[in-house]
Design brief:
The protein is built from 13 helices and no strands. The chain is mostly helical. Helix 5 packs across helix 7 and helix 12 packs antiparallel against helix 13. The longest helix is centred in the N-terminal third of the chain and has 34 residues. The chain is globular and about 65 Å long.
């Protein structure tokens, strides 16, 4: 329930202060948009390698988000419901990818999942799947840096579910799996979709670890970097604007069309 009157001094002062932050976000983006011409945007959009990079990024980010849901939601449920020594340590481990420089992530993944890595070598030998300069490597990098968004969003949703509802269902004869699928999941779907949205967006933007483990095939951020090295700001800034618009569309789709115009964040309250 929102009790703050919009005409109060507190609200006005906070709105002005918050406006500075909004300006800080919008000014660089506005500069990027106004620095382009329709001709430069069209020239970059019709480049086949740019189109391939964008499509590959979307595919890899979507697959990453699905894998994150399959692996992250069960962990989020455990972190929300279990109480045991070391719980806070596990929560900290989940958040580690948010703090490590992504070049460090790339080196760590290369050591573990590279062609001679302790995990990558057996996988390559047994299945033929290589994480070095491959689509699988792109997904691996995206998953590592974005999984905290899935786990934390789902955990917040589970934390806000009234346990009495689940207990009532159990007393009526429903088993744990039935309660989870029929009762718990519908109550936290907004949080799960928020996590999916944030994971998708974060995966699309990943650069640092991908450029070390899987430079090729080129994702959109890597292609932007490649264009910058070859042609400077002209083509790289045009592609940057294309990715910016695409990312903005994804956020609008999830927040407006899925959550509704009155939904503020997707987290359960």
């Amino acid at each position: 329930m929102k009790n703050v009157t919009h005409s109060s001094t507190l609200f006005l002062v906070f709105w002005l202060v918050g406006g500075l932050l909004l300006a800080f976000i919008l000014v660089p983006l506005f500069g990027l948009a106004t620095n382009q011409t329709p001709e430069s945007i069209h020239r970059v959009m019709v480049m086949s390698d740019v189109q391939k990079a964008i499509i590959l990024t979307l595919e890899a980010a979507f697959i990453t988000s699905l894998i994150a849901q399959l692996l992250g939601v069960p962990l989020a449920y455990v972190l929300s419901r279990a109480r045991f020594p070391g719980l806070k340590i596990l929560e900290a481990i989940v958040d580690i990818p948010l703090t490590i420089p992504h070049t460090v992530v790339g080196i760590a993944l290369l050591i573990s999942f590279g062609r001679n890595g302790v995990i990558g070598a057996p996988v390559l030998h047994w299945t033929g799947i290589s994480f070095w300069s491959s689509f699988a490597g792109v997904v691996l990098c995206m998953l590592f840096v974005s999984i905290p968004y899935t786990v934390n969003a789902a955990r917040i949703g589970f934390d806000n579910v009234d346990l009495r509802i689940e207990k009532v269902a159990r007393t009526l004869g429903a088993g744990p799996w039935r309660v989870f699928i029929r009762i718990t999941l519908p109550l936290v779907w907004r949080s799960l979709m928020t996590g999916f949205n944030l994971t998708l967006a974060r995966s699309m933007s990943e650069f640092g670890s991908i450029v070390i483990l899987a430079y090729y095939p080129e994702t959109a951020p890597v292609k932007i970097y490649d264009l910058f090295l070859q042609f400077g700001l002209s083509d790289s800034s045009a592609m940057s604007l294309i990715i910016l618009v695409l990312t903005l569309f994804i956020f609008i789709f999830f927040r407006y069309f899925l959550f509704g115009r009155n939904a503020s964040s997707g987290f359960e309250r």
